[in-house]
Amino acid sequence: MDWIAPMMVALPLLAAIPCWALGRKKLAWGYALMIAMTALETAAALWLLARGSTFSIAFPQIMGLGIRLKVDGFRALYAAVAGFMWMMTSLLTPAYMAHGHKQARYCFFTLLTMGATLGVFLSDDLISAFLFFEIMSFTSYCWVAHEQTPGAMRAGQTYLAIAVMGGMAMLMGLMMLYQQLGSLAFDDLAQLASTPGTSLYLPGALILAGFGAKAGMFPLHVWLPKAHPVAPAPASALLSGVLTKVGIFGILVISSRLFFGDVLWGNLLLGLGLINMFLGALLALFSTDLKRTLACSSMSQIGFILLGIGMQSLLGEHNALAAQGTVLHMLNHSLIKLCLFMAAGVIYINLHQLNLNDIRGYGRGRWGLMACFLVGAASISGIPLFSGYASKTLLHESIVEYIVHLQEIGQSALWYQLAEWVFIITGGITFCYMLKLFIALFIDKHPTRQAEFDGMGRSMTALPAIALGGSALLLFALGLWPEGTLTPLANRTLSFMHAHEPAHAVVFLAPVNLIGGAKSLLIGLLLYWLVVRRWLMGKAQEGRPYLNRWPHRLDLEDSLYRPLVQGLKQLGIAVCTPLDKLVDGFLGPFVWRASALLASMLGGVERLFGPLYALATFTARTLEVMVDGLSVVLVRTILRPAGEPAGPPPVGNRFTHSLGRAADRLSLGFRRLLGRGAQPPPRYSVVFAGIWHTMQDTLRRLLRTLSFSLILFALGLVLLLAYLLTR
Amino acid sequence: MMLAVPIALPLLAGAVLPAFRWKRKAARNAYVLGMTVLASLLLAWALAAPSQEPVELLRFTSRLTVSLKADGLGRLFAVLIAVLWPLTTLYALEYMQGEAKQDSFFAFFLMSYGVTLGIALSANLLTLYLFYELLSLSTLPLVMHGGSGASVQAGLKYLYYSLGGAAFAFIGLVYLVYFGGTTDFAYGGLFTQVDIRHSAQLRLGYLLCFLGFSVKAAVFPLHGWLPTASVAPTPVTALLHAVAVVKSGVFAIIRITYFSFGAALLQGSYAQHIPLALAAFTIVYGCAMAFRERHLKRRLAYSTVSNLSYILFGALLLTPQGLAAGLMHLVFHALMKITLFLAAGVYMVKAQADDVRDLRGLGRSMGLTSGVFVLGSLAMTGIPPLIGFISKWSLGVSAVTLGGALPVAGLVALLISAVLTGAYLMTPSFTLYTARRAEGAGEPEPLGLPMRITLLALAAAMVVLSFYNQPLLDFLTRTASGLM
């Protein structure tokens, strides 16, 4: 049974290549495989969730550091959510990408990302999480860059740059954490962190930067509003819905284990969450592009989740509400964005446009589409009887609980009351921009193309209808009776966050909670009438177009990050290029000139030695000739044997005799053969004897000359040297 | 005596190669490849014997001998070379098909193999120095092979740098003999108990020796020969200037740091800080210059400059953990860099793509090469679970464990370099698939079997090593602690 966890991670990774190959042959098969794989994963995760199993499994040999996986309530829930979202978006993809390009490649990277994402969710130590996190960053890049338009490539560049730099910061944090704690397994972290002498803020901040970049946390959020819109809508749903939650997963891990009950950390996350939610909501309000609005809305909702995590740390042991709220808001937001982005996808399939001014009025009379969109919009706005209301109530309650706690111990709760107001106002802004979208799509009329829109056929074919309808239905069902569906799910996940079940159950439809929700909705309505209809929409004569009034220069990426990176690059080049020139320009010519000088000096020395060498050679030769000549002169004069007569014929020895006789016989035979009778043949024995005699004589003379002696002397020296060397 | 055979065989085989009159190219190719493989097999056989005694080849005095020994570090380097050389020779057989003077090329290629094995198996610094000088000489004709003015200039620059470096290294040799009495390698160094009066001189001697060997190890500011040497044919740059020559420099530095002068002498002194600072600077410098370079092989050459300093950084931390991490990167980087260079060579010779811009859109038509190039780039950037990440992680943990300003600064340099590596390697990798080919660019030629086999083997090795590396890591840890 343990093998389910690694199989859930490995199967999509392994199935990616067959899916790509199949998709190249016939797209339908590729999609079928993808849908089948996602369905399988969802089923497996749901099964694990239903059984409530908890187990872990480790592979110590891989990668030198080991991979550890674990399944528990939280992980099974989120694996099920991820699987469900992948399955639904896979159902939408064939219709969305019809006539699109490189569909097989899209399927390939979708499956890879699925495997990597499940790997992060199922991981049990920070190194495994980092491994799958990096893989996921790279494979999801291909979603962002898929359309290969200039905008997509630029957004992809930003996405990748932030992912890589966040990854490096996280790596540094992980190394520092490892050095301090000695282990990065989730189970060990809490215990090791409580040992005194550990300073965990710096590594914690670095790891937060890494995971937060993926979650879209301020100030590393700049890629989110640009990357989510340019990706295909199914991929946008996954990017917003699941991949941001991967970042949140990491932040949850370190918050609940390293910084449990830490006030500083809690306040940090609370502050960042507030900035995120307010800024995201503002950006969404001002946006006139459907998908960009939804992307900024994601950023805002991530702020809510970060607020929840912050409250968890602040509330310490009593953080049940905050923990429940965090998990439920993660769950809700994933499903909400699934619905909304898929609805946007359906609109794109039909109209190929996403600007509000171009698509307004398309939804008039399309009840199915409207119902699905309504479920998502109502949920995110926090309208009672929809699921988002439950999670927002829990989060609100956690802030109130903390305010009460502070007042009980006599400390000032001013900041937190302010935070509560920001929470409520942001809830209002959320309702406002969702209302804006809803009205624009389903109530407004298009100034010119309304008749054309009404004439268009059904907006969804079978598969997209199942996908969108199924998601909306699930969301609606979860919201109707939160105490029965959402709360038990949340309670299953509490052990992951080291939280306990709340002392008393929350009644969601209690008056105090309803009043809180109503405050947000009223503010939202007010904002809509005052801000949107008065200021963000144009003149009635032009058909009241939606205006984009967000100041162009207020883009953090273009005004800060890109110039900063460019500046660093220029700085690096400016520093290194002169150094390089210095080395090449100074060292090189220096070496050349030094060696040239040396060569000329050596040449001079050689020239000096030239005459000396010639002199030495001449002397040696002269001496040699002299000595040999002297010996020759002596032989011919003083030492000449007196009157050498002809002498008897040379004697030779047995060898020369036998050889000579043999040669005689041979030559006789040859003569007879060749028929040269006349001349008498020479006597070879005599000839050979003569040769032998001459040889002996010459040898005797040779042995007596000086040159020979010198040669032998030199040979002896060489042998001596060789002996000394090899001794 | 068996240790001398794998060294002598390629040397002699290469030396006599030009003497034969080769009627058919295939015969000569078979000879070259056969000798290389035979030498690798003989090395494996020689190393299988567990003997640890040094084998004396020549004896000048009782203190100065030329001997061979196979300890853990030597085995590691020798096996690395022995595995990569036959593969590169196979690749070179196809790469050099159209070139001139192939006989002399392969002769020197073969000889360099023997010399590099000699460096790996040296038992003392004198032997190392001997083979080190021989390596400069035997690789010089390979650098100058092209015969053009640029090649000759590159060769001369290489020669001057190498000889200058060797001269400085010689100073260290003299110091060792004078103060230590011998040049033998012993883990922990020769100076475990040394006089205070002498330690200052010894540190100076070490620093000079380090600077000398750092020419081949391409440490700023003595790295200048390496990018210029990229004009050599790709098998030369790949094997020699990414694996053999530069790793010999790093190997020599590890030998003098841990086995001659010793970590105890150098720890905490300027003799550790200055080289460490140089290494940390070179890490970022190499990447910055690589980022600016447009020529593919020069870019990879600067990347080598940077990565060698990773190894030196790990080694100069002077802890067994740091040395193990450095050795990990030595092995993994050799594999990754040779893969990248060989892929770049395929692009250059089959698609005439010298520049990074020429790589655009080649992903479709050169599937195998591009896949291998992307895999190598991902590994080099340090993306888990590939091998580059494992060594980077070990280096980082060693630095953080040691603590102190300079190691942590080096760690930051490492991470900056990782980002830059992603920038200068992943960007061309992406444009392979996402951009379009330039107008009028011809179709690339198909790859022959030798190149295919080589690229596939290297890619497979990288993947397998990513997942199954525990025995290797254990071996490295034991070697770094002096237990082998």
Radius of gyration based on Cα positions of chain B: 21 Å
Mean pLDDT of chain A: 84
Q: Helix count of chain B, per DSSP? A: 19
Order of helices and strands of chain B: HHEEHHHHHHHHHHHHHHHHH
Gap between N and C termini of chain B, in Å? 20 Å
Radius of gyration of chain A: 46 Å
Based on helices, strands and strand pairing, what is the structural class of chain B? Answer: mainly alpha
Oligomer description = heterodimer
Query: What best-fitting shape of chain B do the alpha-carbon axes yield?
Result: globular
Poorly predicted parts of chain A: none
Which pair of chains has the greatest number of interface residues, and how are they split between the two chains? A-B, 43 and 46 residues
- What count of helical segments of chain A does DSSP give? 25
The low-confidence parts of chain B are none
Largest sheet strand order of chain A: 1-2
Sheet with the most strands: spatial strand order of chain B: 1-2
Task: State the total count of DSSP E strands of chain A.
Answer: 2
Order of helices and strands of chain A: HHEEHHHHHHHHHHHHHHHHHHHHHHH
Helix content of chain B: over 70%
Distance between the termini of chain A: 71 Å
